[in-house]
Amino acid sequence: MAIVASLEKTKPEPGISLLMSLVDDDMARVNQLILDMAGANAEMIPEIARHLIDSGGKRLRPMLTLASAGLFGYAGEGHVKLAASVEFMHTATLLHDDVVDESEMRRGKLSARMLWGNQASVLVGDYLLGQAFRKMVEVGSLDALSVLSTAASVIAEGEVMQLAAAKDLATDEARYLRVIDAKTAALFAAACEVGPIIAEAGDEARRAMARYGTSLGLAFQLVDDALDYGGSSQALGKRVGDDFREGKITLPVVLAYRAGSELERGFWQRTIEKATIADGDLERAVELLHRHGALAETAARARHYGEAAVAALDELPDGDHRQALIEVVEFCVSRVH
Amino acid sequence: MAIVASLEKTKPEPGISLLMSLVDDDMARVNQLILDMAGANAEMIPEIARHLIDSGGKRLRPMLTLASAGLFGYAGEGHVKLAASVEFMHTATLLHDDVVDESEMRRGKLSARMLWGNQASVLVGDYLLGQAFRKMVEVGSLDALSVLSTAASVIAEGEVMQLAAAKDLATDEARYLRVIDAKTAALFAAACEVGPIIAEAGDEARRAMARYGTSLGLAFQLVDDALDYGGSSQALGKRVGDDFREGKITLPVVLAYRAGSELERGFWQRTIEKATIADGDLERAVELLHRHGALAETAARARHYGEAAVAALDELPDGDHRQALIEVVEFCVSRVH
Predict the structure, then answer these.
(1) Which of B129, B133, B161 is nearest residue A42 as measured by Cβ atoms?
(2) Which residue of A has its CA nearest to B150?
(3) Which of B34, B76, B297, B314 pairs with B49 at a CA distance of 20 to 30 A?
C-alpha cells in the first residue's frame, strides 16, 4: 500500500488551516444557521440533523462557498445562507446515499439509517433539501439558484448513473469519470461558483471558480476511492472495503480489471459482479490493485485534477483567499481524514 | 358503507370537465414539458418517470396552477413551467412515499419500487425534485420560489410527522390535521398560490388562493382516508386497507378508537399498535368504523373543508375559471377515482 501509505504520512490537514482561519467568523454563523434550519415540528428531524451535524464532518463545501465569496470581496450576508444551503444539500445526499448503499457507518459513527431507520433517513433527507432551497431563495440571486438547483438535479443523476454502473465491469474510465463528475464534483463546482455570483465578479470569475470546484471535486473523489482500498477505517470514517462489498465500480477496479489476467478477471467477476465475497477476498483485491499499480495510478489522476484546480485560480485576485484555495487542493489530494 | 357508497354513486368526475376544457391547451404543453424534464443521461430516470407519467394520475395539482393563473388573466409562459414543477414535486413525493410505506401498488399498477427497487426510487425522486427546482427558477419569480420551496420543506416535515404518529393511538384529531395539512394541503395551497403571484394579482388574491388550496387539500386527504376503508381498489388505485395494514393513524381510526369500548380499543391496539393482523381484521375494522359513524363523520369533515374552499373564492373574479375551481371541490369531495 505504498502510495496511499505515503499520502497518509503527510502531516495532518496540511492546507486547511489558512482556509479555516479566513472563514472562521462566518463559519460560526453558518453553524448557527444550520442548527436553526434543522429545527422542525417533528422531533425526529432535529435529532437526526444533530446526529449528522455533530459527527465532525469537515464542512469543506460551505467553507469553499465562504472563501469563494471572500476572494472577490463580497461584503453582504448571502454567502452565509448559501454556505448553509450547500451543506444541507450535501447532508441530504449522505442520508439518501446511506439508504441506497445500506451503509452501517458514516464518519466513524453508526449511520442515521441504523439508528432511525431507512424511512426516516429518506424523509429527513427530503426535509433538509427543502430547507436548503428555502434558505437559498432568501438570498434573492436567480443565478445562484440556477447553479444550485442544477447541481441538485445533476447529483441525483450521478447517483442513478452509479447505481446503473454497479456490478458492471464493462464500466470504463470515461463512464466512471462521468459518474463522479455528477455525483461529487457538481456540488464542489456549485459551492465555488455561487461566491463570484453573489459578489458580482463577472462571468470570467464564475467560470474559473466552477472549473476550480469541478477539478477539486474530481480529485477529492479519486482519493476517496483509492482510500477505500488502502486507507484506515479511521481515516475514511467508514469501513475499508465498503465499495468492494457493494460492488461499486471505482477507478482502481476499472484499471486493475482491464490490466488483469483471465484468472484475475474471474476473481473480479465473482466478487464484484456476482457479489459472492469470501474471507480474504478484500485482501486479494488490494493485492491485485497493487500488482497493477491501480492505486498509484488513481492517486496520479487525483494529482492531475488537483493541478488543474490550482491552474484555474491563475487569473484570480492574489492574496490569502486564493492561497487558502490552493492549499485546500493539497489537503484533498493528500487527505488522511 | 352507506356514506362512502353514496359518495361513489355520484356521476363520474362531476366537476373536473370545465377545468379540463379551460386548461386543455396549456396542459398539453405541461405534459410535453414533463416528458422533456424527465430526460437524463441515466436511462433508468426516463423509464421510471414514464412509468409514473403514463399511470394515469389526474394531474389535478398542475391543472390548479394553470387555472389559478388564468383566473387572474395571466398571459405569460411561467404558469406552464410552474405547473410542471408542481407535478414533479408531487411525483417525487409519491416515489419516496412508496419506499417509506413499502407500497406494492400505485394508481392501479405495480409501484416503481416493486419494478426498479427502493434504491432507484429514492434517487429518481431526488432527481425529479431537483428538476422541479431548476424549472421553477427559470420562471424568475422569487415569491413563487419561496412558496414552492417552503412547500417542499413542509411536505417532508408532514411525512416525518406521519411516520412519528404511525401506530400511535394517542394521536388526536388536531395532530392528524397537522399531518395532513403539511403532507397534502401544503402542495395544493402552493399550486394555487403561485397563479396569482405570477399574475401579480396582489396579496389579497394570494391569500385567498392559498386558503382555497389548503381547504381543498384537507378535503381531498380526508376523502382519501375514508376511501381506504370504504372504497374499491379500483377507485383508490391501491389496495383497500393499506393504511390499516401500515398502522397509519387516519381520522376514521382516531374517531372510532375514541368512541370505542374497552374491547374495541383492544382490537385497535393489537392491529394498529402491535401490527398483528389476522384474516377478517380489516372487515372487523370497517364494521367498527361504521358502528361509530367514523366514515360518515370523516366525510362530513371533508364537506366542511370543501365549503371553506368555495368560500375562499367569494371575492375573486367571477367567470369560468372560478366556476371550474368551485366544481373541483365537488369533484374532490365526491371523488370516485
Answers:
(1) B161
(2) A134
(3) B76
User: Quick one: CA torsion of A163, A165, A169, A173, rounded to 10 degrees?
Assistant: -130
pLDDT of residue A240: 85
Asked if residue B267 lies in contact with residue B169, where contact means CB atoms within 8 angstroms, the answer is no
Q: What is the pLDDT of residue A230?
A: 84
Q: Which residues fall within 8 angstroms of residue A96, CB to CB, at 6 or more apart?
A: A121, A122, A125, A159, B122, B123, B126
Q: Which of B47, B126, B159, B246 to mutate to test the interface with A (most CBs of A within 10 A)?
A: B126
Q: Is B122 close to A100, i.e. CB distance below 8 A?
A: yes
Give backbone dihedrals phi and psi of B170, rounded to 5 degrees, phi first: -75, -10
Rg of chain A, C-alpha, whole Å: 20
Residue A151 cell numbers, joined:
447541481
Question: Structural domain of residue A174, as residue ranges?
Answer: 2-333
Task: Give chain A's count of helices (H) and strands (E).
Answer: 17, 2
Across the interface, do B44 and A129 touch by the CB < 8 Å criterion?
no
Spell out, as residue ranges, where chain B has pLDDT lower than 70: 1-14, 232-237, 336-337
Give the model confidence (pLDDT) of B226-271 as tens digits. Answer: 999 987 666 666 778 999 999 999 999 999 999 999 999 999 999 9
H or E segment to which residue A209 belongs: helix A203-230
For the residues of B149-189, what is the DSSP string, one character each?
A: HHHHHHHHHHHHHHHHHTT-TT--HHHHHHHHIIIIIHHHH
pLDDT of residue A106: 87
CATH for B254: 1.10.600.10
Q: How many domains does chain A have?
A: 1
Q: What pLDDT is recorded for position B335?
A: 73
CA distance B82 to chain A (A): 15
**For A71, what's the count of Cα atoms within 13 Å in the CB-facing half-sphere?**
31
* ipTM summary value: 0.94
Kindly identify which residue of chain A lies nearest to residue B162, measuring between CA atoms: A42
If DSSP codes are grouped into helix, strand and coil, which group holds residue A1? coil
Closest CA to A84 of A47, A152, A31: A31
Sort out which chain B residues have CB atoms less than 8 A from A130's CB and list them: 149-150, 152-157
Give me the pLDDT at residue A9, please. Answer: 40
B221 and B180 Cβ atoms separated by less than 8 Å: yes
The residue of chain A nearest to residue B134, with distances taken between CA atoms, is: A149
Whole-angstrom distance, CA of residue A211 vs CA of residue A224: 20
Least CA distance to B100: which residue of chain A?
A119
Low-confidence ranges of chain A (pLDDT < 50): 1-12, 336-337
Q: Which residues of B touch A134 (CB under 8 A)?
A: 146, 149-150, 152-153
